[in-house]
Amino acid sequence: MSENLKAIDRAAAALAGSDGGFPEQEQQPPGLTSAMEPVPDHGEKGWVGRNRLTGLKALITGGDSGIGRAVAIAFAREGADVALSYLADEQSDAEDTAQWVEKAGAKAVLLPGDLTDEATARKVVDDAAGQLGGLDIVVNNAGFQWARRESGLADLTTPELDRVFKTNLYAMFWITQQALQYLKPGSSIINVSSIQAYDPSTALIDYASTKAAINNFTVNLAAELGEKGIRVNAVAPGPIWTPLQPATKPGESMPKFGSDTPLGRAGQPSELAGAFVFLASPLEASYVSATVVGVTGGKPVF
């Protein structure tokens, strides 16, 4: 059995408790990997690189943990140097991720800062390109949600709306706009959408709205940048076991998290990495643009 298949088996086993779910648990945002039970699988032991991104330079927002960490590890093992953008409160997670990147023989650049501030978002891009010596891949992964409210729109406050929209949308616009001065033909932009864009939850009306907008942004920008040879795609995850879950949802919802998917479980961050590697690869996805790849445990993305 290959190492990647073994990693998937480990991921499934980690989710298979007596009720098939997770223990009740809560954290305060943004949440830390080390406090999770079980600790997610980011491909630390399982991802095997095949030199698909050799020599490329990548910026990953929200790169400290969860999906961002899994993508960083996979990119590094595929030969890419990686810059990680993250909140200052997530320094310990970011340092752990950087160690995995460096163990793969790649360069890791740490860029703490709050992307809801425009100047910070733009500086992160400039610093990433400056310290990496260029930029070939941008992964707009940073995101925020808040599901600890009794109802949807009625309980939504303006500060909550600002945080979700500025993290999920404004930052993506700023990051991408700033990156255009560095990207060249063959470069790739990968945005992170969600199953929420297609099957929204009542308590996540603001978050789901941003993810639907990300799909539109992806298709629109792909049309604009196609003549420049820059590809723009998105990955739409389903329920994935990351710090965002216990940090933003009621603890009592964790045991059933992901159980409503056709596969009957939540996914591990490592199970998303392949979609990002494929979309970033100038060899394997050279004719793929304006596409949203669903990694949802069987939930449809259409």
Describe the 3D structure.
This protein has a single domain, classed as 3-Layer(aba) Sandwich (Rossmann fold), CATH 3.40.50. It has 8 helices and 7 strands. The longest helix has 22 residues. The chain is globular. Helix 2 packs across helix 8, helix 4 runs parallel beside helix 5 and helix 5 packs parallel to helix 6. With 302 residues, it is α/β, with parallel strands linked by helices. A 7-stranded parallel β-sheet has the order 3-2-1-4-5-6-7, sandwiched between helices. The two termini are 33 Å apart. Helices cover 36% and strands 12% of the residues.
Task: Give a quick rundown of the structure.
This protein is α/β, with parallel strands linked by helices. The protein has 8 helices and 7 strands. Helices cover 36% and strands 12% of the residues.
Span of the ends, CA to CA: 33 Å
Give the number of DSSP strands.
Answer: 7
CATH homology superfamily name: NAD(P)-binding Rossmann-like Domain
CATH fold annotation: Rossmann fold
